[in-house]
Amino acid sequence: MMGDLSEVTRLPDDFDGRVRLFPLPNLVMFPHAMQPLHIFEPRYCEMLTEALQTDQLIAMATLADPTSPLPVSLCDDWIGTPPLAPEICLGKIVSHAEVEDDRHNILLVGIRRARITAELDLDRTFRMATIDLLDDMYSPAMGDQRIQLQQDLMEAFGSVLPPGNDVQHNLAELMNGQMGLGPITDIISYTLPFGLKAKLDLLCEADVDLRASKLIKLLQSGTIQLSDMSVEKTEMTSAAELEQDEDPFNQPKPASQWGGGPFPPPFSLN
Questions:
Q1: Hey, which end of the chain has fewer CB within 10 Å, N or C?
Q2: DSSP run (H or E) holding 49
Q3: Can you tell me the distance from the alpha carbon of 37 to that of 25, in angstroms, rounded to the nearest whole number?
Q4: Per-residue DSSP letter, 40
């Protein structure tokens, strides 16, 4: 067992709003989801070492324009470039395995959505920023409608999934479980191949009911085609399942079981 979930995902008592940034061009991380990462570039190995020795936290950021030219080497004035989307997800390291040639496999669980307020120049080789945390908000006025909203969301989600016994079984488990509307929206948003703009819009939306409504519209838009996609249970893995796994790296898992693409994921200069 990896310990009590609230302990795994809670922020340190002395958290001061400063975070380490790990920018990637085509990834939007969400709370309640798990993301494997393969780290080997020196500046990110340094970032990882600092995180492991302190608060275990790494903030996953997304390049504002993933098609823009990227630096091919570090320079003294690189802070602030390339520009980042302000919406980020703060993650916590829940598993770490060092492999050969100073490379590292880690498993990160998303714990909070946040917004960058300013980047910092703190004499690090990696980027850092101050952030505002965005707590999930549940409007009291929507209390009576939330159960129906969740049912509508799950029906819209089910409508884009390919037919199959495993898929329908996993969907039923998600519907019948104790997971609330906020985590469900995050897991679906992370799992499905929406565009970056749509995912960032969902990430920055703290109002859970509005986020669910936006997600339903995306699912009903007809832009998601999953006819060739095999959806496994582990592709809808949530933070709650951390308590069921002593060592996520103990058994090799195929690419389809990580929910975030092949493992290790392809590396981009960032």
A1: N
A2: helix 42-53
A3: 14
A4: -
pLDDT tens-digit series, residues 69-78 = 544 333 334 4
206-230: b (≥16 Cβ within 10 Å) or e? ebbbebbbbbbebbeeeebeeeebe
Per-residue pLDDT reduced to its tens digit, 57-72 = 999 999 987 665 544 3
Secondary structure of 109-159 as H, E, C letters: EEEEEEEEEEEECCCCCCCEEEEEEECCECCHHHHHHHHHHHHHHHHHHHH
Task: Name the residue with higher pLDDT: 23 or 261.
Answer: 23
* pTM for the full predicted model: 0.79
**pLDDT tens across 118-131, in order?**
999 888 999 999 99
Q: How far apart are CA 102 and CA 111, in angstroms?
A: 27
Smallest CA-to-CA distance from 110 within 84, 95, 92, 96 is with: 92
- Two structure tokens written together for 4: 């009590």
Pair of tokens at residue 90: 């703060």
From residue 142, alpha-carbon distances to 146, 147, 149, 178, 218 in Å are 6, 9, 9, 19, 21
Q: Are 75 and 55 in contact (CB under 8 A)?
A: no
Residue matched to tokens 């909203």: 149
